[in-house]
Amino acid sequence: MDLKRSRCVRLSDGHHMPVLGLGTYAPEEIPKIQAYEATKMAIDAGYRHIDSAYMYQNEKELGKAIREKVADGTVKREDIFYTSKLWATCLRPELVRPALERSLRDLQLDYVDLYLIHMPISLKPGEEILPMDASGKILLDEEVEFCAIWEVLEKCKDAGLTKSIGVSNFNHKQLEIILNKPGLKYKPVCNQVECHPYLNQSKLLEFCKSRDIVLVAFSALGSHREKKWMNTDIPPPLEDLALKAIAQKHGRSPAQVALRYQLQRGVVVLAKSFSKKRIWENFQVFDFELTPEDMKAIDGLNTNSRLLMLSFGVHHPNYPFVEEY
Question: For 312, which of 14, 97, 138, 179 could close a Cys bridge (C-beta 3.0–4.6 Å)?
Fold first, then answer.
């Protein structure tokens, strides 16, 4: 068996995505050079899947890290699976391709492996990542024409600017709008959503599997606590006594158990860390297995508790979390 392939999932368009990736979002006060260093450390540790977005404002650093690891012979470009995302200020058909081309210029790469619609809520177009009025309220744009945007993404794929296309933070009804689009050429290969033991997304996972769409988990450790974006009232899942007990039984960390849980459910999982020790530790999840009892116990921790509420968009017609899944 090709070990490399066995750690990948085949996407509906025939490309392969590594099942474990490095998440690279960090609050703006964290120096961008940390993302550059973490990416190089992750590639050295064995990661081949790097997840970012225009909104993270670190693509210049990540592109430099990837190019350096290609130049020193550690990897070839085709070994790396790089994800970028179309930000919410560009959710108009005429803005899609220029946004992807801007990311490619920042990265100094010829293509990305996956390009996602970052979220279904649209913000007022312009150079500001978070456009605000004088009182600090985030300015929303009108309803999004998902099908029109999707057609441009299909053309970007045909042009070789991205190998695959997908979505993020979509509910099942929003996915169905694209899936039912007349003349659909390529369906979304994945839906990247918040997913951890306290929000296990079992219904959305079932829906995605039934449509051959891969679920990709961000905030898989539930440890992101940035007040600007996150509901910090939810206790960190890694401190859960049941999860700790399972970790102790296997001689593993709670983080490793939380990541392994997703892999065994058929979920592609992103682990965000800029610490060398944790980057290495988070990759050590392929040499042990959780028992069916372990899996059931972790399933039982689900409380549908969401960290990322996107509360600024609650009045937008495309706010995704009004649906159960």
Answer: 138
The residues, ordered by sequence, that sit 6+ positions from 170 with a Cβ below 8 Å of its Cβ are: 117, 120, 188, 191, 193, 320
Does residue 118 have a known ligand-binding role? yes
Q: Is 177 a residue whose pLDDT tops 70?
A: yes
Q: Give catalytic residue positions.
A: 56
Which pLDDT band, with edges at 50, 70 and 90, does 230 fall under?
A: confident
pTM of the predicted protein model: 0.97
Closest-CA residue to 161 (of 107, 87, 100): 100
Specify the 3-state DSSP secondary structure of 172: helix
Domain boundaries, the chain: 3-317
Is the domain defined by 3-317 classed in CATH 3.40.50.150? no
Asked if residue 66 lies in contact with residue 39, where contact means CB atoms within 8 angstroms, the answer is yes
State which amino acid sits at residue 223: S
Q: b/e per residue, 84-115, with b = 16+ CB within 10 A?
A: bbbbbbbbbbebbbebbeebbebbebebbbbb
Rounded to whole angstroms, the Cα distance separating 255 from 6 reads 22
- H or E stretch at 145: none
Distance CA 78, CA 18 (A): 12
